């Protein structure tokens, strides 16, 4: 489909939606005006959006001319190495060294009693009263 047809279809869709939504809250002339504004904005906005989309999907760099990167890209395409940079390795170094189940073996649930410096039998009642007094003042 050509760029104009795509732009017209998107702009017409925006016009219809904005007109119908605006019609419920405004007069029909205001709704028509807002629909036309949406149509014009989206019709013009679709051309750069389509160009950027084509550039990204075709793999061509956004720079124009024969600079250093475009020369390198053409050399890579001639060699047939177009798959470089398209594979993402999602494994982490820990997965490679220990296997994927090693983290589950090292897991220990949180034990708050083991984390406290003093056990429940060593709690000073005066400190507890002082702390509660400070908390209740706020």
The helix-strand sequence is HHHHHHH
Low-pLDDT regions: none
Mean pLDDT reading: 76
- Overall, the morphology is flat
Radius of gyration: 32 Å
Instruction: Assess the beta-strand content as a share of residues.
Output: under 5%
Number of helices: 7
What would you say this structure looks like, in words?
The protein has helices at residues 3-23, 28-58, 68-79, 93-98, 102-105, 112-115, 125-137. It is mainly α. α1 runs antiparallel to α2. The longest helix has 31 residues, at 28-58. The termini are far apart.
Topology overview:
Elements (H helix, E strand, L loop, with lengths): L2 H21 L4 H31 L9 H12 L13 H6 L3 H4 L6 H4 L9 H13 L1
Helix pairs in contact: 1-2
Please sum up the structure shown.
This protein has 138 residues and is mainly α. It contains seven helices and no strands.
Features:
138 residues; mainly alpha; 7 helices; 0% strand; flat
């Amino acid at each position: 489909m050509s760029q104009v047809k795509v732009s017209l279809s998107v702009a017409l869709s925006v016009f219809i939606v904005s007109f119908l939504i605006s019609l419920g809250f405004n007069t029909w002339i205001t709704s028509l005006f807002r629909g036309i504004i949406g149509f014009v904005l989206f019709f013009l906005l679709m051309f750069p959006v389509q160009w950027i989309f084509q550039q990204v999907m075709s793999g061509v760099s956004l720079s124009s001319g024969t600079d250093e990167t475009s020369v390198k890209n053409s050399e890579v395409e001639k060699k047939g190495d177009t798959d470089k940079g398209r594979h993402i390795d999602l494994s982490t170094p820990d997965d490679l060294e220990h296997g994927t189940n090693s983290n589950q073996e090292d897991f220990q649930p949180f034990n708050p009693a083991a984390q406290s410096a003093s056990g429940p039998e060593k709690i000073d009642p005066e400190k507890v009263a002082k702390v509660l007094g400070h908390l209740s003042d706020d």
